[in-house]
Structures are given as structure tokens and as C-alpha cells.
Amino acid sequence: MDRNFLPAQFSNKRATAKREYSRFVRSRISQGHRDDFHELMDQRFLGTEEFVDDIHRDLNERHSFFYDISIREIVSEVDLVFNISKDLLYSNTRNRRGAFGRAVVGCLAKELANHPFKDTAAHFKRDPVVISKGIKGLEKRIGEDETIITAINMLRESLTKNRKKYSIS
Fold first, then answer.
1. Are 17 and 74 contained in the same domain?
2. Is residue 42 part of a domain?
3. Domain tally for the chain?
4. Which structural domain range is residue 14 located in?
5. Which of 60, 99, 123, 130 sees the fewest Cβ atoms within 10 Å?
6. Is 158 found in the same domain as 76?
């Protein structure tokens, strides 16, 4: 943490910076509560839409917007692209292909439609921790397997084509 950043915004001289900062704060106290300081754009960041977009860009995050896509629609696409039957995806067995498919669904549901992992877990009647672990394993595999990357990119494209985006709010 840089302790000099804030004072340096007011002056390079410490005593002057303290005095100017104090004057700045006193001049704003009369404003009371300001809603614009409490707007929630993304539950991790407090600030304007532009500020949140800047943070996402600085963090190299993919999206500051999402699509209206149901988990059921994602399941159907995963079934088609990976040839994993819906019966297997919804099965209570610990079959690896089924777990892989559920992880793909959970990953895309979060990334594209901002569905929390707990919603994906509830959809499949699974524990959220199990879905989360499956997604972590999937992310590792994505980094190692070009075929999976290609298939997931196809899914992203087919799921988002001609869909309206909406911003984080």
C-alpha cells in the first residue's frame, strides 16, 4: 500500500497535504450521504460504471456484461457439442464424462450469463463445492487440451450469437 498516494494528490509537502486534505473533507461533510458513492455495479467493486469497466480492463477480465441464457439452454448445447447425453449430465452417478459436462455448463453459465455456481449446482442437484471443484479441474484441462478450447469457443459463439448483452448492475 502506498501511504503517500493520497497526500500527494493535495501537495508534495506533508504539512500542506494534511491541511488541504482536512479542508477537502470538511468541505464535503455537509453533503451527507451520497447515493453515487454507494451504487453497486459489480458486487466486488464500488463506483461508477466507468470505474468498474476500468477495473475489469485492468484485471484483464473477459466480461463486464452478460447474456440472458438459461442453464437448460447451456445443457442442450453441451449435449450437442460434447455428445454427452442429458441423461448422463443429470445422472446421480460419478461418471467422469457427466462431471466434465456439468463443469462445462457451470463454467459457461457463470462466464456468459452470470449464474452463480450454486444455481448450477441446484440445477443438477449437486453440492456447489463439487461443481466448483469440477470447474477448477476443467480450467486446468482447458490450458492443456486444444480440442477442449476449440469446443468451448464453439459453445461460447453458439450460445451468444444474436443475443442481447446486459451490463453488470
1. no
2. no
3. 2
4. 1-32
5. 60
6. yes
Report the candidate in 12, 161, 138, 141 with the shortest Cα–Cα distance to residue 20: 12
What stretch of H or E contains 112?
Answer: helix 96-113
Same domain, 26 and 72: no
**What are the pLDDT digits (tens) for 116-166?**
999 999 999 999 899 999 999 998 888 888 899 999 999 999 999 988 887
Q: Tell me how far apart the alpha carbons of residues 128 and 156 are, in angstroms, rounded to a whole number.
A: 23
56-98 pLDDT, tens digit per residue, is 566 655 556 789 999 999 999 999 999 999 999 999 888 999 9
List all residues 6 or more positions away from 165 whose beta carbon is below 8 Å from its beta carbon. Answer: 65, 66, 67
φ, ψ of residue 48 to 5 degrees: the values are -70, 165
The span from the CA of 17 to the CA of 103, in Å, is: 52
